[in-house]
Amino acid sequence: MSAEALRALHVPGKPLVLPNVWDADTARLVEAAGFPVVATSSAAVAAGLGQPDGEGAPVAEMFGAAERIVRAVSVPVTVDAEAGYGLPPAEVATRLLALGAVGCNFEDTDHAGGGRRPVAEQADRIAGLRRGAGDGLVINARVDVFLGAEDENAVLAEAVERGRAYLAAGADCVYPILVRSPEVLGEFVRRVGGPVNAAPLPGGPGLAELAELGVARISLGTGLWRHVRGLLDAALDDIAAGKLPY
Asked: Looking at the domain 3-240, which fold is it?
């Protein structure tokens, strides 16, 4: 599948659902289950490498893990590239294309400097990523203003401003991560004027409600990894207590 075909799967109200993976084995399971696209989770991939999220893992190891995932499946792969690991955006695009990815996540958090990058600066970075990729990557631009926000309504206007700017700069989809309020998310979808990615969260809208709100893409993010990890943790407790969990 080409990037163009992946873009076509971003349909408001009938969203592309992405159970994010962390290695070649989980990617194969997603493909075998019939999902048309594999997406990675940077936090889960980094944890598998023994490193923290937030660009704590070496870029070569993160891209190496992504390449192994791409090689393991026949469906297209979109890679969580965090904020680009300090690389020039055009180089991020070149590396992603070289390993065979057809999409990526790109954050506006500044992991080195702290906080979020100014809107214009991040829009310029997305434009550079687009120039480097041409039409070969589906860019999912993350909007991080809801991270840690006590009042989601208070940051909605900034989120919409960022989303519009990122779409204008060449992003294919925008991702207001960690929105829990269906009212706020619905308003964001209405006002931003382009495809929106969202995640099902505890206490927030589920898969069906996200579709009703008009999102075009649903990412499970770290959700599947945390669920599987919880099952393994419980199984290990059973074994430690002298019981086999299977």
From this structure: TIM Barrel (3.20.20)
